[in-house]
Amino acid sequence: MIDALSERISLRIYELNDKKNVSQAVMKYALVSVFTNTITFILSCVIGILAGAFAETLIAMVLIALLRTLSGGYHLQSAVLCIVVSTVVITVIPFIPVNSTMVIVLTLIAAVLNFIYAPSRLRGVTRLSEKALQFRKWLAIAIILSNLVISSDIVSLACIVQAITLINKSRRG
């Protein structure tokens, strides 16, 4: 559905663009990403509001998106599946009870997974230099470790969820 819509829109834009400075495939990829992220954001916000956990849902969503941008992670093959899985994970996080000891444990595990696996699935698909990728990895680790001071259950769960998506048996960061 999202792929087909993105295909039609990108093809039309490409046909109307005389300069042809961006390929139709690149436009389609960008549109799929925009649609997927926008729908996930809207659904998560609506569910967060209806469930009475808007702020917590927003914190989880923003943190996962930020860490994902910095350190990478696994991509599901279907945009619709990505929307469903992401929305479910983001909206469930505020309702998972975590005690203060587990906040520390989850935060440390997330930092270790980032140390081992980040950047994950970013090499070869980004123009960032190796130095920039390493900087982003360490920035992600610093953000995660800040939760040792903040001590937020939402932050610890969002960090561990994102860190799990980094795991790639065939390659280490």
TrEMBL record:
Keywords: Cell membrane, Hydrolase, Membrane, Protease, Quorum sensing, Transmembrane, Transmembrane helix
Membrane-crossing segments per the record: 41-67, 79-96, 102-118, 138-167
A Pfam family it matches: AgrB
Signal peptide: none
Protein name as annotated: Accessory gene regulator B family protein
Organism: Paenibacillus spongiae
Organism classification: Bacteria, Bacillati, Bacillota, Bacilli, Bacillales
